Amino acid sequence: MKYKVGDMITDSSDKAIGFIADKMPVIKNNVGEDLKGPWFKVFWFSGSCLGWTTEHNHYINQYKKLS
Questions:
Q1: Interval 5-63: pLDDT, tens
Q2: In the beta sheet, which residues pair with residue 52?
Q3: Which of 11, 25, 37, 55 could tie 60 with a disulfide, CB 3.0–4.6 Å?
């Protein structure tokens, strides 16, 4: 897996910087159904989406890990 808890990431589209705070194997949608992951809980410090988001393993690959 490319990402782990504690990684800082950046979004190439708006240069947002975020921190991966948690990894979850499954989350629930708004009607209580399981959505399989893994999922990452990300806190964004800058950019268009400030605050918390939940990112699926498939889609988080659009981000770049900061070294």
A1: 999 999 888 889 999 999 999 999 999 999 999 999 999 999 888 999 999 988 876 78
A2: 43
A3: 55
Instruction: Kindly give, in sequence order, each residue whose CB lies less than 8 Å from that of residue 16, ignoring residues fewer than 6 positions away.
Output: 10, 44, 45, 46, 47, 48, 49
Alpha-carbon distance values, 12 to 30, 31, 47, 48, 66 (Å) = 29, 32, 11, 12, 11
pTM of the predicted structure, to 2 decimals: 0.82
Q: Write out the two tokens for 38.
A: 């893994």
Cα of 57 vs its chain's centroid, Å: 8
Question: Residue 1: its pLDDT value, please?
Answer: 52
* Dihedral sign (CA 63, 27, 48, 51): negative
Token pair 């400030």: residue:
50
